[in-house]
């Protein structure tokens, strides 16, 4: 089926090159968007009606690397869920390393000790040493060290580190994961900042988060959105969770300017990360991950879960690309195989790739991602790949479900497909929606022509996808602005619906004049089908053979058009080739000189640091030895003074004690002491006697009081009962009178009431008499009870008084007896001490003098021995450190410094020579290819004019390797040495061009050095 051409395109513009750039600013300034709010296309809606089943086993998860990272095996039969939360209420764990690896190697004893210490360490632990902060540990780490972090660590500034090979490992403490909290505010900085030009890093089992209201990121390398820097980083993340971050530059979670290798495993989580800024010069999104440059032969492999991430420049460029992941220039192999859900950006709700020049595969689950129109257009609800370069391969083999674009491309949007670029759709596409065109895929460009081939494989599924043109392009739409040059063929256009696709493997092929759909039933030869469907070969559906193995005839065309086309392409290719050769030569030379400068600087810095380090250590050691010696002398003097002082104080104390004792024991003092003892004994006798009398008086008084209280209580009780008895008496009187009145009233009802009245009166008298008797009986009982209780209280009082008097009588004679005994003892002690006092004084003075002399002699001897030992230790320590440590170390450092400088100089010369050789080779190739293509163009024109097949005698380019081969080709090289960029970069970037009418040719942007 042939689709009609509807738009014009400038051929010259289509082949123009944007050499470094992977991105351009919008061709129309945002200032024109004054009425955007009123002109936005409404956000479409969609309903997911069918989800694939994701219940599987660990053996089916081929991306697991249990052996490589854990020294373990895959638990082959264990059931698991391919994507987190996508297996309903089954309770199946995620297919990941944490859940599928079994038989993990046991940690060494040192690792176990380091992990245990990390849980109690304020900072981090390296080789069982605790550092006060994580910053100190990272700074002190050496090659291949592991930094262990336990608990929650809050950092108030970024951690800069330059270790070439390092592992940062979180430790589970009491069931809680290790966490880094970034409590600083910076537009560009992250918690971990890698600064070495070549670094290999492994982060595992760690959470990284921020503080509300403060801008910070997770892990950063060097560079920025427009500069990949000269750094190449190898970064591995195992079970790392980055969440609740806000930052203002690409890659809030991870940013790498240059990636040697990036790997995140299935246990990694990137959640609720917001990239927001009002800077109108920013376009790159990638709230979770941002990579500027992935070189050829290098890999990027992303697994894990990416949810609720946002990239928005709402008050800035309003043109963010990639809600979760942003890749700028892919020349290597990139695989995105994770779960991407509820991510949002203007271009590529989940992922944005500016240029694919390598192999790019989208696997995994892309669900409910949104490309939202901030006023400047929106494309690609799930993934956007702006430019597909020559010989690149892009594959969508995952599940793309419920993604929405408030513009074009419900799943995918592209801007440039160069000739020989390949794209393959063989995934599951369900319920995706575009507000405008292209329910699944949209190609749009104002300056390039769709020239590649896209294959929709028969394994692909397309169901319930919608587009805003009433479903006329609910599968794909290809179009663009017309060219400003009317002499150039129109821009081809085409569209397809799900109903129109018959489920066969179909190639969507474009050239300068048309877009066509081809199948194996389209009447193509085997060679032609092979040419158009090469995406199947890249996707593994055909044998891996090269197109050079087959020869395909070119279609007939006018000689003038073909010749003009060839010459125009030739001139642009030649200029591109030579410019690219010179540009690459400049990059190579700059990198060589930078590496040499960096190497010499590092070598010199290392030597200076080494010298300063060991000079400092020598000074510290000398000072330490001197301090130790002085301290020993000082301690000896202090001990001498202390012991001398103690000895003299002891002597003086003993002499004074002897004098004091003698003074106490002289006759006058002893007589005074005896008299004082007599007075004290008499006073004690009087005190005891008075106390006994007082206790007797108090006991009698207490008994009287208790009796009075008890009698008063009994009287009160009687009065209360008396009142109750009178009240009852009154109640009975009242009741009797009431009954009498009732009887009287009843009597009057009779004809003769006399007898009834007499009876009623008699009953009243009887009741009154009874009430009076009961009252008197109750009062007599209450009075008897009161009298009995008063008599008991009187008996208790008498008993208490008698007990107190008896106890007093028993104790009355004891004080007098004790007084006489104490007086006799005092007199005996007085007579004994008076005779012994003088004799004891003389003995104590003699003993004190002898001990003082012995102590002073011993103290002096010890002091002399300590001074001699300290002097000897000082001399030995200084001599040993100089001979054994300082002098050998400084000699080795000087030798290494000289050797490293020589190696760096030799490498600089070798690299510069190689760069010059490579430049000459590229220039020569450009000249040879130009001469070859000129000759072929002339042959082709002659064939067409002569009526012969156009490709007769037209040769296929093979790089000549000798002068003889050059002569055999009949080529003449130009001598001006001009070069051009490779035609594999024939593209000006379509990124960020709003879908408004603009016929100006785009500006070509030079790249930052990669």
From TrEMBL:
Keywords: Coiled coil, Signal. Residues 972-1010 are annotated as: Disordered. Residues 1-19 form the signal peptide. Residues 754-814, 916-943 form a coiled coil. This is Right handed beta helix domain-containing protein.
């Amino acid at each position: 089926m042939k689709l009609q051409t509807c738009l014009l395109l400038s051929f010259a513009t289509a082949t123009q090159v944007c050499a470094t750039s992977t991105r351009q600013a919008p061709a129309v300034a945002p200032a024109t968007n004054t009425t955007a709010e009123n002109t936005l296309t409404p956000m479409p809606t969609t309903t997911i009606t069918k989800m694939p089943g994701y219940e599987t086993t660990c053996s089916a998860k081929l991306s697991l690397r249990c052996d490589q990272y854990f020294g373990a095996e895959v638990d082959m039969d264990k059931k698991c869920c391919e994507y987190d939360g996508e297996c309903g209420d089954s309770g199946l764990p995620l297919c990941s390393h944490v859940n599928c690896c079994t038989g993990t190697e046991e940690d060494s004893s040192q690792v176990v000790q380091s992990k245990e210490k990390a849980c109690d360490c304020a900072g981090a632990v390296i080789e069982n040493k605790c550092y006060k902060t994580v910053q100190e540990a990272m700074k002190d780490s050496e090659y291949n060290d592991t930094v262990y972090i336990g608990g929650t660590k809050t950092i108030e500034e970024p951690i800069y580190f330059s270790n070439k090979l390092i592992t940062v490992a979180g430790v589970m403490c009491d069931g809680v994961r290790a966490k880094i909290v970034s409590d600083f505010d910076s537009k560009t900085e992250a918690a971990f900042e890698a600064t070495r030009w070549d670094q290999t890093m492994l982060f595992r089992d760690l959470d990284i988060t921020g503080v509300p209201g403060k801008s910070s990121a997770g892990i950063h390398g060097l560079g920025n959105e427009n500069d990949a820097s000269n750094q190449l980083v190898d970064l591995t993340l195992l079970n790392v969770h980055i969440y609740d971050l806000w930052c203002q530059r690409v890659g809030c979670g991870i940013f790498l300017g240059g990636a040697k290798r990036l790997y995140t495993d299935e246990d990694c989580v990137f959640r609720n990360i917001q990239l927001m800024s009002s800077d109108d010069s920013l376009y790159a999104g990638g709230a979770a991950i941002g990579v500027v440059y992935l070189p050829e032969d290098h890999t990027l492999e992303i697994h894990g879960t990416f949810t609720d991430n946002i990239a928005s420049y709402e008050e800035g460029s309003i043109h963010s690309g990639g809600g979760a992941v942003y890749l700028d220039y892919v020349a290597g192999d990139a695989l995105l195989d994770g779960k991407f859900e509820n991510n949002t950006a203007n271009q590529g709700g989940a992922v944005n790739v500016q240029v694919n020049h390598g192999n790019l595969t989208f696997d995994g689950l892309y669900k409910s991602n949104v490309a939202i129109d901030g006023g400047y257009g929106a494309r690609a609800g799930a993934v956007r790949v702006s430019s597909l370069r020559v010989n690149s391969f892009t594959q969508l083999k995952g599940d793309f479900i419920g993604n929405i674009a408030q513009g074009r491309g419900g799943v995918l949007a592209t801007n440039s497909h160069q000739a020989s670029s390949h794209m393959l759709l063989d995934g599951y596409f369900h319920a995706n929606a575009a507000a405008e065109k292209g329910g699944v895929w949209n190609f749009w460009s104002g300056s390039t022509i769709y020239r590649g081939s896209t294959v929709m494989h028969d394994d692909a599924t397309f169901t319930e996808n919608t587009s805003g043109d009433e479903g006329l392009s609910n599968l794909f739409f290809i179009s663009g602005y017309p060219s400003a040059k009317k002499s150039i063929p129109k821009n081809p256009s085409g569209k397809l619906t799900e109903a129109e696709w018959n489920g066969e493997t179909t190639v969507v092929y474009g050239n300068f004049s048309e877009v066509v759909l081809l199948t194996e039933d389209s009447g193509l030869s085997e060679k032609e089908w092979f040419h158009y469907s090469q995406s199947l070969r890249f996707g593994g559906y055909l044998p891996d053979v090269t197109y050079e193995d087959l020869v395909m005839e070119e279609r007939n065309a006018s000689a003038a058009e073909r010749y003009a086309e060839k010459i125009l392409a030739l001139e642009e290719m030649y200029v591109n080739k030579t410019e690219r050769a010179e540009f690459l030569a400049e990059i190579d030379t700059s990198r060589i000189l930078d590496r040499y400068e960096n190497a010499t600087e590092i070598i010199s810095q290392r030597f200076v640091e080494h010298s300063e380090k060991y000079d400092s250590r020598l000074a510290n050691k000398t000072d330490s030895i001197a301090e130790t010696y002085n301290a020993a002398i000082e301690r000896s003097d202090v001990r001498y003074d202390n012991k001398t002082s103690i000895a003299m104080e002891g002597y003086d104390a003993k002499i004074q004690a002897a004098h004091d004792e003698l003074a106490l024991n002289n006759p006058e003092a002893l007589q005074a002491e005896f008299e004082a003892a007599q007075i004290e004994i008499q006073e004690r006798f009087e005190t005891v006697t008075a106390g006994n009398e007082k206790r007797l008086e108090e006991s009698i008084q207490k008994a009287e009081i208790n009796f009075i209280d008890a009698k008063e209580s009994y009287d009160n009780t009687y009065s209360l009962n008396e009142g109750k008895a009178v009240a009852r008496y009154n109640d009975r009187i009242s009741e009797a009178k009431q009954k009498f009145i009732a009887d009287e009233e009843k009597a009057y009802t009779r004809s003769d009431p006399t007898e009834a009245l007499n009876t009623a009166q008699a009953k009243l008298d009887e009741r009154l008499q009874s009430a009076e008797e009961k009252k008197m009986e109750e009062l007599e009982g209450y009075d008897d009870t009161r009298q009995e209780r008063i008599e008991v209280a009187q008996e208790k009082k008498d008993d208490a008084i008698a007990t107190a008097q008896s106890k007093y009588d028993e104790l009355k004679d004891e004080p007098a007896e004790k007084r006489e005994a104490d007086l006799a003892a005092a007199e005996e002690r007085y007579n004994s001490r008076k005779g012994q006092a003088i004799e004891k004084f003389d003995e104590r003075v003699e003993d004190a003098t002898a001990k003082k002399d012995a102590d002073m002699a011993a103290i002096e001897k010890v002091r002399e021995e300590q001074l001699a030992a300290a002097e000897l230790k000082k001399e030995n320590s200084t001599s040993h450190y100089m001979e054994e440590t300082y002098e050998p170390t400084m000699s080795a450092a000087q030798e290494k410094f000289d050797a490293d400088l020589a190696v760096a100089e030799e490498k600089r010369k070798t690299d510069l020579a190689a760069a010059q050789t490579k430049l000459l080779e590229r220039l020569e190739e450009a000249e040879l290819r130009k001469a070859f293509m000129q000759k072929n163009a002339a042959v082709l024109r002659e064939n067409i004019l002569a009526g012969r097949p156009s490709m007769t005698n037209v040769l296929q380019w093979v790089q000549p390797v000798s002068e003889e081969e050059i002569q055999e080709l009949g080529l003449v090289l130009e001598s001006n040495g001009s070069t051009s960029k490779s035609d594999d970069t024939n593209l000006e970037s379509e990124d960020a061009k709003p879908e408004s009418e603009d016929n100006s040719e785009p500006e070509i942007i030079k790249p930052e050095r990669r």
